[in-house]
Design brief:
The complex is a heterodimer of chains A (about 650) and B (about 475).
Chain A: H1 2-40, H2 47-58, H3 61-84, H4 95-102, H5 105-129, E1 137-141, E2 151-155, H6 157-179, H7 194-227, H8 229-238, H9 253-256, H10 259-287, H11 307-312, H12 317-333, H13 335-342, H14 352-380, H15 418-431, H16 445-451, H17 459-463, H18 467-483, H19 503-518, H20 520-526, H21 532-537, H22 541-561, H23 566-589, H24 613-632, H25 643-653
Antiparallel strand pairs in A: 1-2
Helix pairs in contact in A: 1-3, 1-10, 3-5, 3-10, 5-6, 5-10, 6-7, 6-10, 7-10, 12-22, 14-22, 14-23, 15-19, 16-19, 22-24, 23-24
Chain B: E1 18-20, E2 23-25, H1 70-92, H2 99-122, H3 130-137, E3 145-150, E4 156-161, E5 166-170, E6 178-179, E7 189-192, E8 199-203, E9 208-212, E10 227-230, E11 240-243, E12 250-253, E13 259-264, E14 269-274, E15 283-286, E16 292-296, E17 301-306, E18 311-316, H4 321-329, H5 334-347, E19 350-355, E20 361-366, E21 378-385, E22 391-398, E23 406-411, E24 418-425, E25 430-436, H6 440-443, H7 448-455, H8 465-469
Antiparallel strand pairs in B: 1-2, 3-4, 4-5, 5-6, 7-8, 8-9, 9-10, 11-12, 12-13, 13-14, 15-16, 16-17, 17-18, 19-20, 20-21, 21-22, 23-24, 24-25
Helix pairs in contact in B: 1-2
The chains are: A mainly alpha (about 650), B alpha+beta (about 475).
Keywords (chain A): Membrane, mRNA transport, Nuclear pore complex, Nucleus, Protein transport, Translocation, Transmembrane, Transmembrane helix, Transport
InterPro entries (chain A): Nucleoporin_prot_Ndc1/Nup (IPR019049)
Organism (chain A): Sinocyclocheilus grahami (Dianchi golden-line fish)
């Protein structure tokens, strides 16, 4: 019963949110539409005519109908936001994984719907702009003989151009949504009311939609220039529309260099993107609004909605986020609620609230510690990445320490038998990462796994010793270890059973592998993205940051506010948990690529906060420990913790971290 | 406010060494050590420090004029001076461009100039150049020192020098790391991050630098890789920065930007908080408990932000008198009065105030008259008490050596035996003046910081000032 209450509650929040969001977006729609009309009909030299035309157009029935259609579009956008939004971003570790996400059926449906919506919006836009854009078919003079000129319906290429642009923009929005993690919702470092936040973000949204529209217009114009002929003929043949040969075709240079056309394309694109981005923005604002949970309740039926219970909730991630955010806020800003946390239960006198909260925070933090330690173990032992889940396996330590990765696959210039040359090819793939003088961006453990790189101890190494290779091999290995920083690291997954295979199959497979190694596209696709594993490890670190803030502020406040000493009992646990986590985090940042900063995005709607979460976590962790040590000072010596941890805390007491 | 007439007469031409038994002493009994604390007090002279090279625009006169093609010149003008430069270039080369383009650009240029002069007449500081603005709104001085900051927790301070380098001095350590960075020009303000041993925020002309100086490292030249560069378009020059007392947020302000930036430094993300009016933000200060933030503008207006939901209240102010009356109507807490001090004294003839962390000594830098001979800048020190009622008693003047004027000052954040005022003098010397007293707050077992905080401790019921009186 109680559980259902939580679930219904968890469902209610998004629903109410969605309704609010839709209401706001729909209310804002006429405003943006009016601005669009004003801009699209703009004429510098007839201002009065322009204004009067616009006002009459705004009250026309076609505009009202367009608005209704646009409302439908906003509704569907809101639905998709609600369905696709995520608090923990999915971080693809290679371009192949990214491709897999883009081609996922769910994403395909998304793209299809967005293409359709883009066409709908563009249809509305073209109707609103009017003039030569208004309909798909226009009457024109057919190719008649003599004086008899029949009036037939021709294809209006301008209209088609805008519709196709809408579909293209819809697809690129959907595609960029995956690439830029558009549906990832991050929480702001400060709390703001909804309206000031909306006002503050609005210029950014306008700027983003203009820039995105300009990019899309450029790309679409290029695309239409090359491939515009296909949809044009297809549409005209299916709808039995003729192509007016007297008009300039748009898929030519002169047809595209039409300032008015490009202006209208950009304006409509901006309108399209703005409608969608505004919904995304409103959704983010509504979803990240802080929610306040009661710390304890006098009624047992409300007990399930209290902070300690919601914190322990594992099924709905949103609730956990809200609860931890609330914990961080109450620990900093609310004395009365802190006192509730520190109080004892009325019959029995147990500090249930504090116990539940601290237990939950500590389990979160120790779970992160375990995750980090497991990752380090995986990376550490001889640079070998043990099999992990596909989305979070990491780049091997050997390759990533320098900015440029060495090149694969310059085949050895060995004349002679096919066998020799092919093996040479394999070995070039094998040794290439260790040859320092060639460089190219294409190399990864994955591809070397794919092309079949061999361990020196594997049976194959023994079987294919031609004198040539035997001579070459050791020389290269030693040269590599001496001159470059790439160490010799055997990779797993290569133990192909080759003991008994014939020379022929060996030959073939080697050829295939060397062939694959030289294919730039495949190397490109399987190339690991740097930092991705680090980002994936810390993808949900916002909860850990809040847990750290909440714990440290509560512990610091307990120094003066905790009347019953409930915090003292858990203080050793908390301190050792924090120190252990700090050690794990420190060790993680020693891994290659973990401490490299991502390039800052210029102006895009996608949120890239997740890329820097690990730095935020490290800063929050240190601040948390400092908060506790500065508050307790010398009293920490009385706390029962191990000697190593005490040594580390002493560093903090002396401000040497 | 008390009159300066009740102050004990300053002893001229003798450096004030310390306060003891409620007296500011400039000479000690024989056999006493003048500096009980082993804090470094370095001195810098202008001659040893070479200032940064002249700005690029002024070096143009050193080269011969060379005619490039119009495209090259336009591109160069666009790169150097933006839209203005481009329009200017097109207008000036009227014989090479089509007539309509030259006329059009001349019209646009005139329109832009008119608009900017109108804007500038509203906010006169916007007509200043970047360097002038830095000089106007920062505590920069004519001496070799540009800025100074104590570390909030340890015996360590950072000094920004005329040559745009920053040096860090520690007690008990001879290593003085020197921080230099390509972007570190015209340093306006320094502040150490609270609850952190290493991070130092530096407000520069074009950006914000966060140095991470490892306290255990013996290196004297940390590489520029230790510095994080934070910048936001349109947000420069930065003249004031303020860390929140918990160290989680950093707020930066620029006189040309109406928005102040709230940085999450580790994540390198900023939230702009924009309020039109005032024409910019020149000065920022957090309250000790972190619940409020004061933001002063170049015009007669300042804002007090509450930091729970980041709403603000405008305090328009013409001459200060109306505001003082308004303050008196409220029940003045120490904290609010501190704001009043900082703000009004900055406005009128006081240039700086600094309050000792125990809340018992208040130092006010009285700006002298640069024309008159007998009106040097001096530091007046007040004794303050916050309970049961607020009291302000004169203590005395802190004097430097002959000819040296104080430029800026800061109290040591945790001096054991009272208060310690560090003063940077115009001759490039940094000296420490200890004030020995037994704290009234310590007797009660309650530090004034906490007493200050307890005034506004419960932030859930926290309201802004006007809400409290209404």
């Amino acid at each position: 019963m109680a559980a259902t209450a939580i679930y219904s509650y968890a469902w209610l929040v998004p629903l109410a949110l969605w309704v609010l969001l839709i209401a706001w977006s729909v209310l804002l729609l006429p405003v943006t539409a009016a601005v669009f009309v004003l801009l699209s009909r703009f004429s510098l030299f007839h201002p009065i005519q322009w204004i009067s035309e616009c006002t009459s157009l705004l009250t026309a029935s076609s505009t009202i109908f367009s608005l209704v259609v646009l409302c439908g579009v906003v509704l569907i956008t809101g639905l998709f936001n609600l369905e696709f939004y995520t608090l923990v971003p999915s971080i693809p570790c290679s371009r192949m994984a990214l491709l897999g996400t883009v081609l996922h059926p769910r994403q395909c449906v998304h793209s299809l719907v967005y293409c359709t919506m883009g066409m709908l919006v563009m249809w509305c836009a073209s109707v609103t702009i009017g003039g030569r854009y208004s309909t798909l078919g226009i009457p024109c003079r057919g190719s008649g003989f003599n004086n008899c000129i029949p009036v037939v319906t021709c294809l209006n290429e301008y209209h088609l151009f805008l519709l196709l642009a809408g579909a293209f923009m819809g697809y690129s929005h959907s595609f960029l949504g995956v690439v830029q993690n558009m549906y990832y919702v991050s929480f702001q470092p400060i709390q703001q009311y909804k309206y000031p936040r909306f006002k503050g973000c609005l210029p950014m949204v306008v700027k983003c939609s203009v820039i995105q529209s300009l990019y899309s217009a450029r790309n679409f114009a290029a695309l239409y220039f090359f491939f515009g002929y296909a949809p044009k003929t297809w549409i005209s043949s299916t709808l039995h529309l003729q192509i007016d040969s007297s008009l300039q075709p748009l898929d030519s240079l002169t047809g595209l260099l039409d300032f008015s056309l490009l202006y209208h394309l950009t304006i409509s694109g901006t309108f399209l993107y703005f409608t969608w981005y505004l919904t995304v923005l409103l959704f983010r604002i509504y979803v990240t609004e802080a929610y306040s949970f009661p710390v304890q309740s006098t009624f047992t039926e409300d007990a399930e909605q209290c902070l300690p219970k919601v914190l322990a909730e594992t099924n709905t991630l949103v609730m956990k986020f809200f609860a931890l955010q609330d914990l961080a806020l109450l620990s900093q800003h609310s004395l009365s609620r802190r006192l509730e946390v520190f109080c004892l239960s009325q019959p029995g006198g147990h500090p249930h609230n504090w116990n539940a909260i601290s237990r939950e925070c500590l389990s979160l933090l120790s779970e992160l510690t375990q995750r980090l330690v497991a990752h380090q173990d995986a990376v550490a032992s001889n640079g070998r990445v043990k099999s992990q889940s596909a989305s979070s396996d990491t780049r091997s330590a050997s390759l990533s320490s320098s900015g440029k990765t060495p090149r694969l696959g310059v085949p050895l210039r060995t004349p002679g038998s096919v066998f020799k040359s092919s093996v040479g090819g394999v070995h070039s793939a094998l040794t290439a990462p260790f040859t320092p003088d060639v460089d190219s961006p294409f190399s990864s453990p994955a591809i070397r796994r794919l092309v079949g790189q061999q361990e020196p101890r594997s049976p194959w190494f023994g079987t294919v010793q031609s004198p040539h290779i035997m001579r070459r091999g050791p020389k290269l290995w030693s040269a590599s270890t001496g001159s470059s920083r790439f160490t010799v690291i055997p990779l797993h997954g290569l133990e192909t059973p080759v003991n008994s295979c014939s020379c022929h199959t060996l030959n073939c497979s080697a050829q295939v592998k060397s062939f694959l190694a030289k294919r730039v596209l495949i190397v490109y696709l399987f190339n690991k993205l740097p930092e991705a594993s680090s980002q994936a490890l810390f993808a949900d670190s916002q909860v850990h940051i809040w847990a750290l803030q909440g714990l440290s502020h509560l512990v610091a406040a307990s120094f003066s506010e905790d009347q019953f000493g409930v915090v003292q009992t858990t203080l050793p646990n908390i301190l050792s948990c924090l120190v252990v986590l700090l050690e794990a985090v420190d060790r993680h940042f020693k891994l290659p690529h973990a401490s490299s900063k991502p390039a800052r995005a210029v102006c895009r709607m996608g949120d890239s906060t997740y890329k820097t979460l690990r730095f935020a976590l490290r800063a929050a962790l240190k601040t948390a420990i400092y908060k506790i040590t500065t508050t307790f000072g010398e009293h920490l010596n009385a706390v029962n913790i191990s000697t190593e941890h005490r040594k580390r805390l002493q560093q903090f007491l002396e401000f040497k971290e | 406010m008390c009159s300066l007439g009740v102050f004990p007469a300053p002893v001229t031409a003798a450096q004030t060494l310390l306060e003891r038994n409620n007296e500011l002493l400039s000479a000690l009994h024989p056999g006493e050590h003048p500096q009980p604390c082993d804090l470094p007090s370095p001195q810098f002279t202008r001659d040893t420090l070479k200032g940064h090279s002249r700005p690029e625009s002024s070096s143009r006169s050193a080269f011969l004029d060379q005619r490039d093609t119009l495209w090259m010149r336009s591109a160069g003008a666009w790169r150097d001076a933006g839209l203005y430069g481009l329009l200017d270039e097109i207008t000036n080369s009227a014989e090479e461009v089509p007539r309509f383009l030259a006329v059009g650009s001349a019209c646009v240029l005139a329109l832009l100039r008119w608009a900017s002069s109108f804007h500038g007449s509203l906010f006169p500081h916007l007509t200043l150049s970047s360097d002038e603005m830095v000089a106007e709104f920062s505590q920069m001085s004519d001496s070799a020192l540009r800025s100074f900051a104590w570390h909030p927790h340890t015996d360590k301070f950072a000094v920004a020098l005329l040559d745009d380098s920053i040096r860090i001095y520690k007690s008990n350590s001879s290593a003085t790391p020197t921080l230099k960075h390509r972007c570190q020009r015209s340093v306006c303000a320094l502040q150490w991050k609270p609850l952190c041993g290493s991070a130092l925020a530096v407000a520069c002309q074009s950006c914000l630098l966060i140095w991470h100086v490892d306290p255990t490292s013996l290196s004297t030249r940390p590489s520029s890789g230790c510095a994080q560069v934070l910048s936001h378009p349109g947000h420069s020059p930065i003249t004031s920065i303020a860390w929140s007392p918990t160290g989680s947020l950093l707020v930066s302000a620029s006189p040309v930007d109406t928005a102040m930036m709230v940085w999450d430094v580790a994540a390198e993300s900023a939230v702009p908080l924009q309020r039109v009016g005032g024409g910019g933000v020149t000065y920022l200060s957090w309250s000790p408990d972190g619940s409020r933030l004061l933001a002063a503008t170049p015009s007669a207006l300042f804002r007090v932000w509450e930091t729970r939901m980041w709403t603000c209240e405008r305090w328009p102010c013409l001459k200060g008198s109306c505001q003082v009356r308004k303050l008196r109507k409220l029940s003045i807490t120490v904290f609010e009065l501190m704001y009043a001090f900082i703000y009004f004294f900055k406005l009128t003839f006081f240039s700086q105030t600094s309050w000792d962390p125990r809340g018992e000594r208040l130092a006010v830098l009285l700006k002298g008259d640069s024309q008159a001979v007998n009106h040097p800048s001096v530091i007046a020190v007040f004794k303050t008490r916050s309970s049961p009622v607020f009291e302000l008693l004169p203590c005395g003047f802190v004097m430097g050596e002959a000819g040296a004027e104080p430029r800026f000052m800061q109290f040591h954040p945790h001096f054991q035996h009272g208060a310690l005022l560090t003063v940077c003098w115009s001759d490039g010397r940094i000296s420490h003046v200890p004030f020995y007293f037994s704290s009234a707050g310590l007797l009660g077992g309650d530090s004034p910081q906490q007493a200050l905080a307890s005034n506004t401790a419960d932030h859930s019921s926290n309201k802004l000032y006007t809400e409290q009186i209404s």
